[in-house]
Specification:
It contains eleven helices and nine strands. By secondary structure, the protein is an alpha/beta fold. It folds into two domains: 32-216, Vaccinia Virus protein VP39 (Rossmann fold, 3-Layer(aba) Sandwich), CATH 3.40.50.150; 226-296, Helicase, Ruva Protein, domain 3, CATH 1.10.8.100. Helix 8 packs across helix 11 (281-296) and helix 10 crosses helix 11 (281-296).
């Protein structure tokens, strides 16, 4: 497993030099299109593995294995389990197949994780773990996909842009709250574990990252119909600089007149002069209950 400088299978990709050597051997360059920044920091790798708390018989789903640095480390820790790694870049598949050839329990899939049915990856009775360094450009839809597939997962450990991690962990009702953060926190416990310097990747991105851990809840943190709750959240945050009354009337999903929005707010006990980011989960839940009641007539 020592580095020999030629990028051979089994070499530990824990330095920019080793990453560049491997890419040269396969005639590859990172693609901005898919936000490719390859992890080359062993300390970060070990901390991600620690956060995942892997057991030998775990089932694991990895989004975007890249050059396989995390994939290999995970595979070595789940010899009695299974690892499914989905990579969208066809150029990386031969490289990954070579590096992962000694792990028969690893299934490499060439495809788009956004188009994959995550709930069908493992047998119905299995709860898996999800891992990955999420591309910046599609972090939000990937997180939403995880939340919607949460019943099949025990936990997820994601590396995301630092700003996204801050949004995900900002409590509802505070200045940093966002629609994505409220949505994820409504269904999962979210914990920001540690910051990752841009120097831990090659090529280095323009911003730092952070690792977050998501633990799906047995029940969501709201009691209103899910569809109504999600529409209220989207509407409340769609126009951050406008009052809540104005944001609700502007929402193409809610289709409320000003009078209807005023009635909705009054029944929920929420002031229309406030901004959406100031609402707690309980207040959003009350609004969703009243919206569902209004729509039922």
């Amino acid at each position: 497993m020592g580095q020999n400088g030629n990028g051979s299978a089994g070499e530990r990709l824990t330095s920019p030099r080793a990453v560049r050597a491997l890419l040269r051997r396969f005639g590859l360059r990172p693609r901005k299109r898919w936000g490719q920044h390859f992890l080359c920091d062993e300390n970060v790798l070990l901390k991600v593995l620690e956060a995942a708390e892997l057991r030998p018989d775990d089932r694991v789903f990895e989004v975007g294995p890249g050059l396989g640095v995390l994939t290999e480390a995970v595979a070595a820790r789940v010899p009695e389990g299974e690892l499914i790694a989905v990579e969208i870049d066809a150029r990386l598949i031969p490289l990954l197949r070579e590096r992962l050839s000694r792990f028969p329990h690893v299934k490499l899939v060439h495809g788009d994780a956004l188009e994959l049915d995550w709930t069908a990856l493992f047998p119905p009775q299995i709860q898996a773990k999800a891992l990955g360094n999420l591309p910046y450009g599609i972090t939000a839809p990937l997180l939403e996909k995880f939340v919607r597939s949460r019943g099949r997962f025990e936990r997820a450990v994601w590396m995301v842009q630092l700003e996204v991690a801050q949004k995900l962990t900002a409590p509802p009702g505070t200045r940093g709250a966002s629609a994505l953060g409220v949505f994820v926190q409504a269904f999962c416990d979210v914990e920001r574990l540690f910051r990752v310097s841009r120097r831990s990747f090659w090529p280095p991105p323009e911003v730092d990252s952070a690792v977050v851990r998501l633990m799906p809840l047995s029940e969501p943190r709201f009691s209103a119909p899910e569809g109504a709750f999600l529409r209220v959240v989207r509407a409340a945050f769609a126009h951050r600089r406008k009052t809540l009354l104005r944001a609700l009337t502007l929402s193409p999903e809610l289709k409320l007149s000003k009078g209807q929005a005023e009635t909705l707010l009054r029944r929920a006990g929420v002031e229309g002069s406030r901004r959406g980011e100031t609402l707690t989960l309980d207040e959003l839940d009350r609004l969703a209950h009243e919206l569902a009641r209004m729509e039922r007539g």
